[in-house]
Write a structure and sequence with these properties.
The structure is a homodimer. By secondary structure, chain A is α/β, with parallel strands linked by helices. The first copy, chain A, is about 30% helix and about 30% strand.
Chain lengths: ~280, ~280
C-alpha cells in the first residue's frame, strides 16, 4: 500500500504544488458508471472520500463546507420551505439542510453509487437518517434535465458538484443557470461551489459571468477548509431580489438559535465569509 | 536538483500531511550562527525563504502575513508613534510598519545574516529602503535581553519569530511577555505569531495562557496564507487597557485611507479576522 495519498493532477491546472495525506488504511475502491470512487483512512483527516483521484470531503473537516454551502443560502432567505439540492450524493448537504424547518427537499444526484457508498462507509454524513424523513425526495437523474420541470417553485437551490469537468461541466454553464433562475421563486437564492481562490480564479470568474445575465445580485463567499487544495475556497450566490449586501445578522439571530448541532456556522461567520481581502477582489474584477 | 520542496518535519508534531512546491531554481543556501538559510524559486509561490527547512515567506503571498501582523496592532492603537519589532529579519514587517506616520521604530533581530540575505535576494521586502529612514534603529541582539532596557516606552510591540524552538523558544515564555508588558505604555498593543490552527492549537493555547497573567485583554486573530502548512494561521494580541471587542471600524476609516499600497488589509478584514468559527473557539477553551 502507498503510504501517502496525493490528489490527481487536475486538467487545465499545471500542478505546481501538491498536498499529501498519510494513509492508514484503504477502505473501499470501486467504479460507477461515472467515476472512480475511493474511501481511505488518513491520520490527519480521518476517513476521506475521493472521486476520480480528487479529495471530496474528510470526516474531520467536512462540516465546514457542508454547513457553509447550506446555511448561507438558507439564512439569506427569510423563510425557506422548498429546497433543491443538485449533487451532494455523499449526503453532507441534505444533513445540514434538514436542520431547518422545511416542507419539501428535492435531492437530485446523477450517480446512485455515491449515495450507496456513503450510506455504507461514511456514517457521519447520516444518509440513512436523512432518507427516513418524508419531506426528502431523492432522484437519480441529471440535474440539468431535472431542473427544467420546475418554474417559480424553489426557495433555495444548492449545487454541490465536483470540479467543472466530465458530468459536472454542464452545471457551470449559462443555460443551466437560466433554468435555475426560472425554477426559483422571486425571492429565491442560488448557491454553487466555485473552486478555490488559489488556482481556480478563472473558474470563479466564469461562474460569476454566467450567472450575471439572469440574476440581479451575485456574491462570492469564502471559506477555509483543509479538505481542498488551496484551502481558501469559494461559493458563489445569486438572487433575483435579495440584496446580499443588506444582510442583517441581527435579524437571523432568533432563527439561528433554533438550529442545533452547528460546529462552524454562526451569524458573524456568515457575514465575514462574504468579506474578501483586497487582492481577491482585484483578481475577480 | 530535487524537483519538489517539502518542509522539514517539525519536532513535536507527527507529520501526517505534507505540502510540496515545485522547484524552478535553487538560488542560495548558507548557514548562519543560528540556522540554515535557503532561497528557492518555485512555480506556485515565486521566490521562497526557508529557515531550517521551514518555509518562512513567499514572494507571491508574504504581504498577507506581513500586512496583518503589522496593521492589526497599529490600527488597534489610536495613535502609534513608537514601535518595537522583535525578529522579522527578512524586513516584511518593517516595510509595513513604515506605512504609518511613526516617530521611532526599534528593530531587533538576533541573526544579522538574515537581514543581509534578504537585502540581496528578496528585494520585494525593501530592506534597503526601510533602513534608509532615520527613524529606523536596527539592533542585532537577543530580543529577550533588549526588551529589558525599556519601561513604559512603546505603543506597539510586534513579535515576528520562527516556530517556538531553538533561539525562538524564549519569545513564547511568560517572563518575556512580562517584560513586553512592562515595556509597553498604558494603551500599548502587543502581537505575536502563534502558529496554525490545524496542528498547533496547543501552541496558541500556551501563548494565551502565558499572556493572560499580565494583560487585561487577549485576543486571537486568524488569517489565511498559503505560505504556511495548514494555511489557517493565528496571531495573538494583548493589551493593558484597549478592549479589542470594542473596536470600531468606522473610527479608523480616515487613518486607513492615508495608508498606501495595501493588498490584503482593510478595516472590514481587520474586524473579520477576529471572528473565529465555532469549532476553533471550542478548541481554544
Amino acid at each position: 500500500m502507498k503510504k501517502w495519498f496525493f490528489e490527481k493532477e487536475l486538467p487545465n491546472i499545471a500542478q505546481d504544488y501538491k498536498i499529501g495525506w498519510k494513509l492508514k488504511k484503504r477502505v473501499y475502491s470501486g467504479r460507477s458508471k461515472y467515476q472512480k470512487i475511493e474511501i481511505l483512512d488518513t491520520s490527519a483527516l480521518g476517513r476521506i472520500f475521493v472521486l476520480n483521484g480528487i479529495l471530496q470531503l474528510s470526516e474531520k473537516y467536512e462540516f465546514i463546507y457542508h454547513e457553509m454551502i447550506s446555511h448561507l443560502p438558507l439564512f439569506y432567505h427569510k423563510n425557506p420551505k422548498k429546497v433543491l439540492i443538485i449533487g451532494g450524493g455523499d449526503g453532507g448537504v441534505i444533513r445540514e439542510v434538514l436542520k431547518h424547518p422545511l416542507k419539501e427537499v428535492f435531492w437530485v444526484e446523477l450517480d446512485s453509487k455515491i449515495v450507496e457508498v456513503s450510506k455504507k462507509y461514511l456514517p457521519f454524513l447520516s444518509v440513512k437518517n436523512s432518507l427516513k424523513q418524508k419531506k426528502v425526495k431523492l432522484f437519480f437523474e441529471d440535474g440539468t434535465t431535472f431542473i427544467k420541470k420546475f418554474k417559480n417553485f424553489f426557495d433555495v437551490i444548492i449545487v454541490d458538484s465536483t470540479d467543472p469537468e466530465g458530468p459536472s461541466f454542464p452545471l457551470f454553464e449559462k443555460k443551466f443557470y437560466k433554468d435555475c433562475f426560472l425554477a426559483l421563486k422571486k425571492d429565491g437564492i442560488f448557491i454553487t461551489q466555485s473552486g478555490n481562490f488559489l488556482d481556480q480564479i478563472s473558474e470563479i470568474k466564469t461562474v460569476i459571468s454566467n450567472l450575471n445575465p439572469f440574476f440581479s445580485y451575485v456574491k462570492v463567499h469564502r471559506i477555509f477548509t483543509p479538505d481542498y487544495q488551496g484551502s481558501d475556497f469559494s461559493f458563489t450566490l445569486a438572487s433575483k431580489s435579495i440584496d446580499f449586501e443588506k444582510f442583517n445578522i441581527k435579524k437571523i439571530e432568533k432563527r439561528y438559535k433554533k438550529i442545533k448541532g452547528l460546529k462552524c456556522y454562526f451569524p458573524q461567520i456568515h457575514f465575514c465569509s462574504g468579506i474578501l481581502p483586497k487582492f481577491y477582489k482585484e483578481k475577480l474584477k
